[in-house]
Write a structure and sequence with these properties.
The complex is a heterodimer of chains A (about 375) and B (about 260). Chain A has about 375 residues and is mainly α. Chain A has two domains: about 40 residues, no CATH class; about 325 residues, ABC transporter involved in vitamin B12 uptake, BtuC, CATH 1.10.3470. Chain A is about 70% helix and about 5% strand. Chain A contains 15 helices and four strands. In chain A, the strands form two sheets. A two-stranded antiparallel ribbon of chain A has the order 1-4. In chain A, a hairpin with a 2-residue loop joins strand 2 and strand 3. Chain A is globular, with a radius of gyration of 22 Å. Chain B is α/β, with parallel strands linked by helices. Helix content of chain B is about 35%, strand content about 25%. In chain B, the strands form two sheets. A six-stranded mixed sheet of chain B has the order 6-7-8-3-9-10, with helices on both faces. Classes of the chains: A mainly alpha (about 375), B alpha/beta (about 260). At the A-B interface, helix 1, helix 8, helix 9, helix 10 and helix 11 of A face helix 2, helix 3 and helix 4 of B.
């Protein structure tokens, strides 16, 4: 097991715990940079999709994992970011301005919606945000003048400083664009977590009463979390629009909202790793099912094997398995495996067993 | 100077009068204890001072300024910190992170500087950590510094709550039953700490406590309450021997005539 000897306060503030850890992440980054030359265009596209999902996952993780407020309406904010970005681009705004602007406006809209809706708690908040998701589809269809109604819009190719970036024409450039945004969001996420605001988020998640007693303005902080979360998800939406090429109200339906939530639960609530693990699962599962279906049908000579609903069923199955056996998600599994090897042979089976918490009778809210 | 003043404060929950016309003041540097049987309104008074409840009548002042127009989250900014009777820690965070939340009232950075972790945020973080480490040293929490609250024993959690309140650098500390559920040894530690908090740090302490050993060894003045009403106020020994207090705890001694 590794003991880090801390010599200054900066040792607790740094982004990486120790040099070796920094090394691992640099290695991962190098691998991600080399990916376009390691896999073919199809898998590069899938990887791009996973990164976009991971950005959206980080957005929702900030709200649900860090601040403890559930949202089933985040597809609506993805849609908002996506439409804003493309509408702005159609009006002649260059992508390099339109995408951040789309994120910022989505954040502001998020803050406005958060003011009434974050008065709700728990299951009621889930229902309230669910309504946003349901409403957004209708709003997109109704505001035909801007959104193209049921026909939808087509994302124009991106041009950054004379460099044409297109999902199909130059998939490598598009991949790097998405990777850059991912790293940017990741850095901001980490910065917030190590700053007072991030701690205020966690404080609200664990005990609103005592957060308040320490001077955290609960309402304002929750709205900030919601706005940040929506802003990040808006960025992901903007990128998803370009990834999909053409999109309409069905691209951002309720299923996407649920998928986002599923992603962070499977990945592991409350950790950044969780957003990425979850994105890999949600992003690659449909491919995995398709590949294994082809494999099975070729082995048993079944011809084409139509299995409608297999995707949804597998998602549901995986979710149930995780909630039953590993509520901390894939990140939890990873922590256990790591601890096993770090402490070998002293790992005990009940090491991560949750202790029953003490009675909280005097909850005032 | 009087730090906290309650003037004819009354609070009703429907028909129940939880606090009935209570007045007292806590002077600077004083350790003031509230005692009384269960349901006497001690914790309710704490919640009134932290602005969780609104009094039906009366006034609550801090340094001669009414705090009734403040929100609960504005109270800590005056320098009033509190602990909770049923520990309210942030379970999924480490001890260090819990204490750092206590620094929230000293936060000067804003969303934008924190997003990019500007140099001033880093400087502030270092200052916060310095204060927190001093508190950790004072309460001997070094061994638990990076442990998650969820895995800590009850006694330690109690100390972490005190530490978190101290990390706010308060002028007044409201301790809600600091010794409940603690062993004899831990209670003795608590006595030393409260004395040090008063003498070394010069913090005014207002506490609710049932353990009369702790109350009589640390407090300057004691207010006894029963059913929301004041029974007696004075030094610990005066209050303990007051007939009304004895009656509230033990009964009158008169036989019920059949």
């Amino acid at each position: 097991m590794r003991f880090v000897f801390k010599r200054s306060y900066d040792d607790d503030i740094k982004l990486f715990k120790h040099r070796q850890q920094a090394g691992y992440y640099v290695l991962l980054l190098v691998l991600m940079m080399a990916l376009p030359w390691l896999v073919d265009d199809f898998f590069l596209g899938e990887a791009t999709n996973v990164l976009i999902l991971a950005i959206a996952g980080m957005g929702l993780m900030l709200l649900t994992g860090q601040t403890g407020q559930v949202s089933l309406g985040h597809a609506a904010f993805m849609a908002l970011g996506c439409y804003l970005n493309v509408i702005l681009m159609q009006r002649g705004v260059p992508f390099i301005i339109s995408l951040p602007l789309a994120g910022i406006i989505t954040g502001i809209v998020g803050a406005i919606i958060a003011m009434p809706i974050l008065r709700l708690h728990g299951i009621y908040l889930a229902i309230g945000t669910l309504a946003i998701s349901v409403l957004s589809e209708d709003i997109i269809v109704i505001s035909k003048k801007w959104t193209g109604g049921v026909i939808g819009l087509v994302a124009e190719p991106i041009n950054i400083f004379g460099l044409d970036i297109d999902r199909y024409g130059t998939p490598i450039l598009f991949y790097f664009l998405v990777l850059f945004v991912t790293l940017f969001v990741l850095l901001i996420f980490r910065n917030i977590l190590r700053a007072p605001l991030g701690r205020a988020f966690a404080a609200i998640r664990d005990s609103e009463v005592s957060a308040q007693a320490l001077g955290v303005n609960v309402t304002k902080t929750k709205i900030t979390a919601f706005a940040l979360s929506c802003g990040i998800v808006g960025l992901a939406g903007g990128l998803l629009g370009h990834f999909a090429g053409a999109f309409n109200h069905e691209t951002f339906n309720l299923v996407l909202s649920i998928q986002l939530l599923l992603m962070i639960v499977i990945g592991g609530l409350g950790s950044i790793h969780g957003a990425f693990f979850g994105a890999v699962i949600v992003g690659f599962l449909p491919q995995l099912i398709a590949i294994s279906r082809d494999g099975i049908s070729s082995i048993f000579n079944l011809g084409s094997l139509p299995l409608p609903g297999i995707e949804t069923a597998s998602f549901a199955f995986i979710l149930v398995i995780f909630i039953m056996f590993e509520p901390r998600g894939i990140y939890g599994v990873w922590i256990k495996i790591r601890t096993y090897f770090e402490l070998f042979p002293f790992y005990r089976k009940n090491m991560f067993k949750r202790q029953k918490s003490y009675l909280k009778t005097e909850r005032m809210k | 100077m009087s730090f906290i003043t309650l003037e004819n404060v009354t609070l009703r929950f429907g028909g129940l009068v939880a606090v009935n016309d209570v007045s007292f003041h806590v002077g600077e540097g004083e350790v003031f204890a509230l005692v009384g049987p269960n349901g006497a309104g001690k914790s309710t008074i704490f919640n009134l001072i932290s602005r969780i409840y609104n009094p039906a009548s009366g006034d609550i002042r801090f340094k001669d300024k009414s705090i009734l127009n403040l929100r609960p989250d504005q109270v800590p900014f005056l320098g009033i910190a509190r602990t909770f009777q049923n520990i309210e820690l942030f379970e999924q965070s480490t001890v260090l992170q819990n204490l750092l939340v206590g620094r929230h009232r000293h936060r000067k950075s804003n969303l934008l500087t924190e997003m990019f972790f500007a140099p001033n945020v880093r400087d502030e973080e270092r200052r916060h950590r310095q204060v927190v480490e001093e508190v950790i040293d004072f309460l001997e929490l070094q061994a638990y510094r990076d442990k998650y609250i969820a895995g800590l024993p009850y006694g330690v959690r109690k100390v972490v709550e005190l530490a978190r309140a101290l990390a706010t650098e308060p002028k007044v500390l409201l301790l809600d039953e600091p010794a409940s559920g603690l062993s004899l040894e831990e209670t003795n530690d608590m006595i030393f700490w409260i004395e040090d908090i008063k003498k070394q740090m010069g913090i005014t302490v207002l506490m609710v406590e049932h353990d009369m050993n702790l109350v009589s060894s640390v407090s300057d003045r004691v207010l006894a309450l029963a059913d929301g009403k004041e029974l007696a106020i004075g030094t610990p020994s005066q209050v303990q021997s007051h007939p009304a207090v004895i009656e509230a705890y033990l009964g009158t001694g008169q036989r019920i005539s059949s």
